[in-house]
Specification:
This protein is of the alpha/beta class and about 475 residues long. It is about 35% helix and about 20% strand. A seven-stranded mixed β-sheet has the order 4-12-11-10-9-5-6, with helices on both faces. Strands 1-2-3-16-15 form a five-stranded mixed β-sheet. The chain has a four-stranded antiparallel β-sheet with strand order 13-14-18-17. The longest helix has 22 residues. The radius of gyration is 23 Å and the shape is globular.
Amino acid sequence: MRTVAPSEVAAYEAALLRDEAQYCSFGDTVHYLNPPPIFERCEGSYIYNAAGTPFLDLQMWYSAVNFGYANERLNNVVKKQLDTLPQVASQYLHPTKIQLATMVAQDAEKKFGHKGRVHFNVGGSQSVEDSLKLVRNASNGKSLMFAFEGGYHGRTLGASAITSSYRYRRRYGHFGDRAQFVPFPYHFRGPKGMSKEEYGSQCVKQFERLFETEYNGVWDPKAGQAEYAAFYVEPIQGTGGYVIPPMNFFIELKKVLDKFGVLMVVDEIQMGFFRTGKLWSIEHFGVKPDVIVFGKALTNGLNPLAGIWAREELINPTVFPPGSTHSTFASNPIGTAVGLETMKMLAETDYETMVMDKGAYFLDGLKQLQKRFPIIGDVDGLGLALRAEICGQDGFTPDKAMVDRLCDECMKGDLVVNGRKYGLVLDIGGYYKNVITFAPSLHISKEEIDLGLELLGQALHRVTTSR
C-alpha cells in the first residue's frame, strides 16, 4: 500500500486523475462523482482514502463482498492457493472445481428435488451468456426470452438483450436473444387499492393472457409450442431498486411457465449467498428453478468466478456436450478454492438467522428515518437487501436530483460521529434512479448499522435543510 503524507494527498490524487483522464478508457466504468474518489485500503465494512478517512460501505461492491473486506479466512485460502496450484489449463482438472460443483449441486438437489450440474465461467454476464446457450439448446434453438421491466442481467451482447435498459444496447444493435419485457409487481408504484398479493396475482394473470390464443402472439395451440424459450428473473430486482415481490408471485408465475413449457432461469448474481437470508433468494418464494445463475459473492470479490446450476436433463453431456462454451479462465483454481471455502463457511454458521436478525434491525432503523424525513417514500427489505426510495415532498414523485445530492454529501467524508470524520458509501438504483439500495456486509455489527443510520440521518438533514 502506498503511504501518502496528509500534505501530499491532494497532489498525489490530482496526478492520478490526470493520468486516468488521458490513459484510461471510460467505457469500463461510470464516474458518479467529479472528481471520483480514490481508495487505498479496505477492512471489514470500511474502505479508506489516502487521507485515512473511513467510509462505511453499505453497498459492498454491489453485493460482491458479502463477507466483509479483507475477510481473513477467505484471504488465507487465496494465499495458500498461490503457493500450491495458482494456475492450471482449463482442460485439466483440479480438486476444488469438482468439490465446489458437488457442494452447489447437492445443495440444489436437496432443496429443489432435481439432480443437476454446475458449469463455471469468470463473471456474471458470461454465465448469463452460457445460460442463454443452454436454454436455446434445450428448446431447439428458440432465441426469444421473457424478462422483467426493471431487470438487469449484464452488459455483454446477449445479456444486454434481456436487460430492460435500452441504453445498454442502443449503440450496438440486437444480438438474437431478444426479450419481451413483462411488468414486475412493484407494489409501491402499482395500482392503488390493491394489496401486495393481489397485485402479484394481477401481474401473473396479465402475463398468462399472452397464451390465451395464438393471436396474442407467443403461443401456437395446435403445436402446443411457445415461441419463447425461458423467462429470466431476478427474485429481488437488483439494479431495478431492490424491489421485493409478494410471496405468492413466483409460485403463480411458475405454474404458468410449467403449463406452457417455458423454462425459469433465476439470476442470483446479486442476491445469492445469503444476501436475503437464504443461499438463493428464490428459496423464499417456494418454487423450483430450472437454471440458477450465480457469481459475485461466491469468491467475496477476491477472484472472478461465476457459474450456472441447471437440471440434469438440460445440462448433461449428452445434450450439452464438451466445448459448448469456453473461457480460458473458467473454473480457475484460485477462484474455485475460495468459492469452496465460502460454501464451507456458509455451512458452518447460521447465516439465515444472523442475516434476518440484522436485516430486521436495519429495516426498523430505516423506518424511523422515514418518519423523520418525508422524502423517504418507501422502505422495504428482505434480509440485508434493503431499499429507501427518495421522493418529493408528496412522498411519491421520484426525486433523482435529491438522491444524487444525498450521495454526494455522503462521499465528502466530513460527516462527524463522536469527533471522527466518516464517509458513507451508498448505491443508487431503481427505475427512476431515486432508490438507495443497501447491501452491507453480512458481518456488519449492529453498532455499525447504528453508525450507518446516524451518518445517513446527518446527510438527509443537510440536503433537506439546504434546498
